[in-house]
Amino acid sequence: MSLNSRIPKFYSFSQEERRNIIASMFNFNEQDLKYLQDQEINDSVFEVMIENTIGKIPFPIGIATNFKINGKDYLIPMVIEESSVVAAASHAAKIARKKGGFTAEYSGSIVIGQIQLLTSEPFEAVKQIISSNKKKIIEIANSTNEFLVKLGGGAKDIEIRRVKGDLREYFILHLIVDTKDAMGANAVNTMLEKLQPFIESIVDCKVLLRILSNYAIKRIVKVKATFDKELLGGDEVVENILFAYDFAKHDVFRAVTHNKGIMNGITAVMLATGNDTRAIEAGAHAYASKDGNYSSLSKFEKDENGDLVGYLELPLSVGIVGGAIHVHPTYKTLLKILNVSTAEELAIVAGSVGLAQNLAAIRALASEGIQAGHMSLHARNLAVSIGAKGEEMEKVASKLIELKEITYDKALEILKKIRK
């Protein structure tokens, strides 16, 4: 399917009009449209997903436009409650589009499963025993998931590490598993459980923890984009962005907020596609500390033309099958819009959104300031919160922006005057 993600003034349409535009582009039926509005999902779906359910809380679904990644156009569903994120990512993608959009690569769908061994045996002896039984270990692990093996995935290798704790030293067996298009937690954990008796039979040890690691260093996405200096605002804005990046690179207080901006984009895509946002966030922030100090996940530099070149590298353990994706129908509908065919493709899309969002945030900070972008939506949110209806909402919001005093009390004061 050929797709053009440039939809000029998409923001200016009503919500119903935007839904109908997307529906026509992807040949949605009436049921797909209902799932986008979250009106037809039975409570039984949520009973399956988590325990002790009492209801549900809706989040807005936005569509990021303008994205071209590895030569392909994408309309990207994002689920987030924070103002300006979808618009900012779309605008950054438009700037990158002039220079060809984003290029990205993925290192593969490899997950690490960990088995913790408690033993008094020498490390080299344990390592030798486990290494000599590598073929059997992989065979036992793969016996738990023949379907994954048929797809070309499954357990592929092992590693043995030692970890010095405060209480004692532990030997750790890493099971290296290709989970293909699944995030893979259930598959890997099942393999690790199956291996416990065998490991305890060949090594004089007690197996304690058997769990996958969310530090997915073998599932790295790398993204690059060139942002046109004129569309950014000129040479001074480029220089200011470089100063802002340098600040984030060397100061942990700034780096945390800088990386949070990256995750604004990535997490919004993960929420829209039913992926484990907590695992991805944890892995990303650990990766930011891989060199011993917490630092920026992204990098920016100026090329010979004076344009800004951005890079992003982080682990992304994602899936397009399994888990909540198969249970919640809205995830399926949003994956149709995203139009990705593999977990690898989803990872490069999410990484590209992360870089776009990061660029948009630091551009705003380095030029007009972050509040300018938030002002309009924040004013409208305040107007709604005080009970403004219909045209009242726009009048209150406009007056708040005009006065540059976006507070709850001022909004109430304005609404009272309007109603008089």
TrEMBL record:
It comes from Candidatus Heimdallarchaeum endolithica. GO terms for molecular function: hydroxymethylglutaryl-CoA reductase (NADPH) activity. GO terms for biological process: coenzyme A metabolic process. Belongs to the HMG-CoA reductase family. Keywords: Oxidoreductase. This is 3-hydroxy-3-methylglutaryl coenzyme A reductase. Gene3D superfamilies: 1.10.8.660, 3-hydroxy-3-methylglutaryl-coenzyme A Reductase, Chain A, domain 2 (3.90.770.10).
